[in-house]
Design goal:
It is built from 13 helices and no strands. It is mostly helical.
């Protein structure tokens, strides 16, 4: 039997800590939602009962709904199960990951009591380490990063961890992520959806991601033998206006 790696053991411990920290939590007794669009009264009652496992569809509808009156209590109720679904890739299969990130953002977990906020932070950190180091990580790095940014409200911490993770797996994750991002970035757009940020905030993130890629991506992508066209697209990020789209390597007409 294969023994879990240290990052996996850390993630398992973080998930266990979440389960312990949030045991007994329930949705706010006065919270509710539309039976026509969200679900039944019986399903809502399950959310107001502690420690009952939710079926995957009820979990998805709960974290996807952005109109709870008491989002912090709702997030506390579903957090241990939601974290497991994120790590396993179940959330990615059932719904867009950005809904999960929004649930964290609306719940404002960074402002919760220290024991609770620390448990969330350790889970997010441990999940990111596994994403960058484990070839069998279930969710692509670009999807995890978007969720982490929405959940935490910051980008630099996650990019900093990526920059200091020196491994072929982390380099391959970078190639895979840029393949998802390049179209949006070359059109000066943030390459993931966000529910909670202003246009100015999104532009700050886009500029920071672009600058980080220009600093870090070329050497790492060359190291794993990435497609030269990908390296040219990275280079184009450092150009603006006609210098970018008149460059012989501008990937038109697809862009």
């Amino acid at each position: 039997m294969t023994q879990p790696t240290p990052p996996r053991r850390r993630l398992d411990a973080a998930l266990a800590h979440l389960a312990t920290t949030y045991r007994g939590m329930t949705a706010h007794p006065d919270d509710g939602n539309c039976e026509c669009h969200w679900g039944s009264a019986e399903e809502l009652a399950r959310l107001k009962t502690p420690d009952i496992e939710l079926d995957p569809d009820l979990l998805r509808r709960t974290y996807s709904a952005g109109d709870w009156d008491f989002p912090a209590a709702m997030l506390r109720r579903i957090l241990p199960q939601l974290a497991r679904a994120l790590v396993s890739g179940e959330s990615e299969r059932l719904a867009s990951m950005d809904y999960a990130g929004r649930a964290f953002a609306l719940g404002r977990g960074q402002q919760w009591p220290a024991e609770q906020s620390t448990a969330i932070r350790e889970f997010l950190d441990a999940w990111w380490v596994v994403t960058l180091t484990d070839p069998d990580a279930e969710v692509p790095a670009h999807a995890v990063l978007a969720t982490l940014v929405e959940a935490s409200g910051v980008l630099d911490n996650w990019l900093g961890a990526w920059a200091t993770t020196d491994s072929p797996v982390a380099d391959q994750r970078l190639a895979e992520a840029f393949a998802e991002w390049d179209y949006d970035l070359l059109n000066d757009e943030l390459p993931w959806s966000t529910w909670t940020l202003t246009d100015d905030d999104k532009e700050v993130l886009r500029a920071a991601l672009t600058a980080w890629l220009l600093r870090n991506a070329p050497a790492r992508l060359q190291r794993i033998g990435a497609d030269p066209q990908m390296l040219h697209r990275i280079r184009l990020l450092g150009l603006t206006g006609p210098a970018r789209w008149d460059d012989p390597h501008w990937p038109s007409p697809a862009y």
